[in-house]
Design goal:
By secondary structure, this protein is an all-alpha fold. The chain is built from 4 helices and no strands. The radius of gyration is 15 Å and the shape is globular. The protein starts with 7 loop residues before the first helix and ends with a helix.
Length: 71
């Protein structure tokens, strides 16, 4: 949660803003791409192909998702 707060997203987007064209389809969100790669590194996966099935698992993160929506 701390990584994604305090203007972090705006900081990353400002670093790469000039690399995106105003024409064409919407780009991937640079913050999302950065965070996926960061978490892959933290979790010790050398290959993105081995990490993505873990991220995409239907039950992965279910508890944190529910916790995040509690008041």
């Amino acid at each position: 949660e701390r990584i994604t707060t305090a203007g972090f997203g705006n900081f990353i987007r400002s670093l790469v803003a000039d690399a995106y064209s105003p024409l064409g389809r919407p780009p991937f969100d640079p913050v999302s791409i950065f965070l996926i790669d960061l978490f892959r590194y933290i979790d010790g996966y050398r290959e993105m192909a081995k990490f993505l099935p873990v991220v995409q698992h239907k039950d992965q993160g279910r508890d944190s998702h529910l916790y995040g929506h509690q008041s």
